[in-house]
Please model this.
Amino acid sequence: MTIAVPLLGNAARADDFPSRPIHLIVPYAAGGSADATARVIAKQVSKRTGQTIVVENRGGSASILGTEFVNKADPDGYTLLLGQSGPISINPAIYKELPYDPVKDFAPVSLTSTYPYLMVVNRSLGVKTLQEFVTLAKSKPGALNYGTTGVGASNHLLTELFNLKAGIKLTHIPYRGTALAVADLVAGQVQVVFSDPISALQLVNSGMLVALAVTSKDRSPVAPNVPTISESGYPGFDAVGWHGILAPAKTPPAIVAKLNAEIVQALKDPETKSLLESQAIQVVGSSPQEFADYIKQDIALWKEVAEQAKIEVK
Model:
């Protein structure tokens, strides 16, 4: 009987869940793909559950502040995190100390979406394929600059991963956002950027930039004519950004399961799918265990890259 009582309590709370508004924390400022994803999902889950999903932006300190806020929240399902590869997979690889453990301190609910990075160059560089770019970079070690959204950002590590695979040396120029890096790419101040698709696709389609490759293992639906890095001479290359919903650790499994069911169904909604795909984001949806396994695999990937490239944020 002593075991049955808490189990019944959890089941009862899950049956009644949600009975008040849920807060979905985005550890970034308003705007951008993470914020857009959170608001699209929140709208549909609100419709399904009859409860408001309040999206709160708590940016700062490389997304550590918002992530830590959820870590410290009550594990009752009413405070959730819009997780992303940066705070969950990459921060553990580049920070010696974090106020949270991405594996132990969170209960994965569902991987919601992924997006490849688009490797884009200024057309004045005179290269049209990935191999032509690598040949040029090898002929001028360190002479070509690449822009990122900052030291330790996902596209910083991604570029270093490509450098390691291709055996080239590029010079890092950090910016305070993708838009600034892409603007300087257009101006010719940097020669290459690994950009999220929505920040670069319009410029590619207009002919101002040249897309050499996407970083996913398969071609992207938003850029089907752009080859993958894997098919361009580097088999097995697969590195993408992602979004997913996480709850604080110790959230009752029954509540996690209910949240998962609602989120997965929301992702299947045609309107949700259309809105996310318009942001150049690919809808996924997963079980909690599949998401947990994905996170562990992603952490291992970026830890290896950070160690090999000697990237550390102090």
In short: The two ends are 51 Å apart (CA to CA). The first helix runs from residue 4 to 16.
